[in-house]
Task: inverse folding
């Protein structure tokens, strides 16, 4: 091979590296909106035996279901049942009004 062909091959390899996807292992923290390889479990974590009671005074529990921006996380992400999600929304809003969160 001549020098010019080797140079062209080398440049093409560099260009291809720019457009390759980064591996998932390089991400330190997954965002809520990124797709994950594993699926969420379908069981509601608030309906199991010995589950914590949903109450506006239970701030630790409520903070688990609020994003960093202060928005309530949807039940599709948290896998909470419909009735528990409605109760959770009410209690989070009560806690916001009382400035507990």
Result:
């Amino acid at each position: 091979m001549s020098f010019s062909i080797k140079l062209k091959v080398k440049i093409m390899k560099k260009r291809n590296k720019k457009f390759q996807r980064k591996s998932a292992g390089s991400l330190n923290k997954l965002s809520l909106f990124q797709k994950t390889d594993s699926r969420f479990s379908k069981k509601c974590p608030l309906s199991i035996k010995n589950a914590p009671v949903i109450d506006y005074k239970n701030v630790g529990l409520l903070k688990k279901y609020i994003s960093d921006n202060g928005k309530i996380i949807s039940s599709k992400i948290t896998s909470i049942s419909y009735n528990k999600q409605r109760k959770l929304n009410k209690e989070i809003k009560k806690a916001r009004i009382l400035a507990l969160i």
